[in-house]
Amino acid sequence: MTYKIAMYTRISKEDIEKSKIESESIVNQKSIIENFIKNNKEFIESEIISYSDDGYVGSNFERPAIKQLIEDIKQGKINCIIVKDLSRFGRNYIEVSNYLDKIFPFFNIRFIAINDNYDSKNNKNCTTDLDIAFKNILYSYYSKDLSTKIKTGLRARAKQGYYTPAFAPFGYKKNEKTKKLEIDEETAPIVKMIFDLALEKNSLVNICKILNSMKIPTRSYFKIKNGIRKEYNNKLDNKIWKYEDIRIILNNEVYTGCTITSKIKRVKCGSSKIMKSDDTLKIEDTHQPIISKEIFNKVKSKNIEQSENRKLKSIFSYKLKCGNCGYSLKYNYSYQNKQVIDRKYFCSGSRETDNSSCENVKILESELKKIVFESLKEQILLHFKEEKEEIIDKDNLKQQILKLEQKEKELIFSRRLMYEDYINKKITKENYLKMKAEKEISINILKEEIQELNNKFLQNKNMEKESSILKKYLKEESLTKDMVDVFLKSIYIYDNNTIRIEWNFKKD
């Protein structure tokens, strides 16, 4: 048998950061596998393809090379996989066992783990023997234990004044030897200027306008310049200072010389998961401050005061974008007797820079609600119109299905009688086989017709279910947050209250 061998190697970020010995490197793993292939005659003239995941953990299979390997297996490009040991393939006991016991045997894949002395060719029907299962459990436990140790270690290093995140905050640079923050002489003055402007009672928007008018380079500019991020020419990039940039800087206590670290956990929120900080740890005087604690606290209290009137959440949150530049719209309030009476959305590009094509992109929330509500009602009514054209008589459809099912039963019974006639030698074998084939063709045709009608019935049932949901929304007297979340993907605002809606459903 000629083998098409997949030589799979992997090294995790933890292995790289811990500067593990050469035996754990990609190069060494490949060398071990190549020597194994070379010293086995059955692999002579085999085609070898290399797959490597450099910097990926083994606790899951969300790895680019492993995904490509599985895809190639499905396409028949691979019939043998060789790894240094099972832990390189994966550390999750359940998933690894699933591959060894079910997936690889199904695709007739031979799997070899050299250091574990495992070869599926010699372990047929017993891939989950005690030794292999035990090793997989150990690998799985090691992976979880390693993750816990790393998190604990990072917090311990933070307590010692080491800066554990990969990149330094704007205004600082990270000393690669000491792993501590140092003031960046190029960007720290910009941070100080932002705090000074905030102390002078400038709003966040005014600070943006001042920085942009002075052509002060943005955070993104320095990230691209220092190779922290790439510049994508075809992608909207942050070329100007924005409201959110200033807010992030003014709320970051790292500029007072302290380090803050938190345990992060995933918390379920609706259908998705969000990251939430828990058990915050604050370590004072870990690096040189850019601004004093007094200045930070004054600015922070001012920001809290300004944000008190922004507690009402918009029903259009995260949906509104400028039709010209693509940025998310900001808003302010209209008041009467200290009560909010309306909200006006606008593109902040017209305020954060002196010149902008977005200056006339503005719309009142009350007007926007009316426009969107009317547009949504039109879409729902259009659905009912199309549904009316497709409506079917359910009772008549049921009768058709019952008639066809009865006819199918009669044909099956008739086929059975034919067989009895053949057994009793009333008809010849040749006639029986010919008549049987004709009956089976008729039965199969009936089955297809019945299936088609059942599909039509089910489709009609689903349409009725959708209609009942839509009717509920049609009864609403005004636009609600629920309606916006269900039906709308994005709303693009242009000049003169012109809008373009991207729906969550496809439009013909």
Approximate helicity band: 40-55%
| Total individual domains | 3
> How many alpha or pi helices?
16
The major sheet is characterized as: 5 strands, mixed
Task: Give a verbal description of the structure.
With 508 residues, the chain is an alpha/beta fold. The chain has three domains: 4-154, Rossmann fold; 172-307, Putative Large Serine Recombinase, Chain B, Domain 2 (Hect, E3 ligase catalytic domain fold), CATH 3.90.1750.20; 312-508, no CATH class. The protein has helices at residues 13-17, 26-38, 64-74, 86-89, 93-106, 130-159, 188-199, 204-213, 219-225, 243-250, 293-307, 349-352, 365-390, 394-423, 429-474, 481-487; strands at 4-11, 47-54, 80-83, 110-113, 118-119, 172-174, 181-183, 259-269, 272-283, 320-322, 330-336, 339-346, 362-364, 488-493, 499-503. The chain has a five-stranded mixed beta sheet with strand order 2-1-3-4-5, sandwiched between helices. Strands 10-14-15 form a three-stranded mixed beta sheet. The longest helix has 46 residues, at 429-474. Residues 18-23, 232-237, 264-277 and 307-311 have low confidence and may be disordered.
Task: Describe the structure concisely for a colleague.
The protein is of the alpha/beta class and 508 residues long. It is built from 16 helices and 15 strands.
Q: Any chance you could write out the topology, listing elements then pairs?
A:
Layout: E1 4-11, H1 13-17, H2 26-38, E2 47-54, H3 64-74, E3 80-83, H4 86-89, H5 93-106, E4 110-113, E5 118-119, H6 130-159, E6 172-174, E7 181-183, H7 188-199, H8 204-213, H9 219-225, H10 243-250, E8 259-269, E9 272-283, H11 293-307, E10 320-322, E11 330-336, E12 339-346, H12 349-352, E13 362-364, H13 365-390, H14 394-423, H15 429-474, H16 481-487, E14 488-493, E15 499-503
Parallel strand pairs: 1-2, 1-3, 3-4, 10-14
Antiparallel strand pairs: 4-5, 6-7, 8-9, 11-12, 12-13, 14-15
Helix pairs in contact: 5-6, 13-15, 14-15
